[in-house]
Design a protein that fits this description.
The protein is mainly β. It is 0% helix and 61% strand. It contains no helices and eleven strands. Strands 2, 4, 5, 6, 9, 10 and 11 form a seven-stranded mixed β-sheet that branches. A four-stranded antiparallel β-sheet has the order 1-3-8-7, with no helix packed on it. A hairpin with a 4-residue loop joins β7 and β8. It starts with a strand and ends with a strand.
Length: 120
């Protein structure tokens, strides 16, 4: 009933930028906090940035100052602006949201992921 779809990934050179988007759709009453995660091969999935419904943000040290999380509540969309990308940022990026659906219990949902590859 609730779907999250990421887009905006791709191949970029080191020092470049990408903007990821995550659109939530379905029978949604309210979206609470949202976050961006990433998982590189052989690594655990890690939280990069989160944003509350009120717009408060938090960042992992590894991306602080380079990545910016934002959201457009009217569009049920979250963004991740990624600047000064490094080869170690290469991973699959996932969005996650705490959603209160219209006719179901509140829960956390994941997108399918979008690949980001940064070449040196």
């Amino acid at each position: 009933q609730v779907q999250l779809v990421e887009s905006g990934g791709g191949l970029v050179q080191a020092g470049g930028s990408l903007r990821l988007s995550c659109v939530a759709s379905g029978s949604i009453f309210r979206i609470n906090d949202m976050g961006w995660y990433r998982q590189a091969p052989g690594n655990q999935r890690e939280l990069l940035a989160s944003i509350t419904s009120g717009g408060n943000t938090n960042y992992a040290d590894s991306v602080k100052g380079r990545f910016t999380i934002s959201r457009d509540a009217a569009k049920n969309t979250m963004y991740l602006q990624m600047n000064s990308l490094k080869p170690e940022d290469t991973a699959v990026y996932y969005c996650n949201a705490d959603v209160s659906p219209l006719l179901a219990a509140r829960g956390r949902y994941w997108g399918q992921g979008t690949q980001v590859t940064v070449s040196s």
